[in-house]
């Protein structure tokens, strides 16, 4: 019974560390995507999609939402997957690639599409490795 209690505590503290790391990575990724969008806009790239402007803060908000979903996925995998790190990395890489599809077909100029895709890749490059490091191999 003591072994079970220790295992539960270890799992709980690992999940807590995973969530803290995930939230910190989410904040960093949100700031980074807003910076990329702002720099792109200052360089003359339109932030209009289908004729409607995308606010720079919108990049940060959407990055936070989807990054936190990734943290929830990671926490679930930490609990239920046989190889949580590998499963998380594979899953999030596929989801990142799929997230580029709407950008490719968006009603926007080529530079805007490229900027949108870059923000996805920047966020993934920050969040995926940070969270994966907290998962058991």
UniProtKB/TrEMBL annotation:
The chain crosses the membrane at residues 21-42, 54-75, 87-105, 111-132. The keyword rRNA-binding does not apply. Keywords: Membrane, Transmembrane, Transmembrane helix. InterPro entries: DUF6069 (IPR045713). This is Cell envelope biogenesis protein OmpA.
């Amino acid at each position: 019974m003591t072994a079970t209690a220790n295992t539960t505590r270890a799992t709980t503290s690992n999940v807590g560390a995973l969530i803290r790391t995930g939230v910190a990575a989410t904040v960093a990724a949100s700031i980074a995507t807003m910076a990329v969008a702002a720099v792109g806009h200052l360089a003359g790239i339109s932030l209009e999609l289908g004729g409607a402007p995308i606010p720079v803060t919108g990049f940060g908000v959407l990055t936070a939402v989807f990054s936190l979903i990734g943290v929830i996925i990671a926490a679930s995998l930490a609990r239920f997957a046989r190889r949580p790190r590998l499963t998380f990395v594979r899953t999030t890489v596929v989801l990142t690639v799929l997230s580029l599809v709407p950008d490719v077909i968006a009603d926007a100029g080529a530079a805007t599409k490229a900027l949108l895709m870059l923000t996805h890749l920047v966020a993934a490059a920050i969040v995926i490795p940070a969270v994966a490091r907290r998962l058991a191999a």
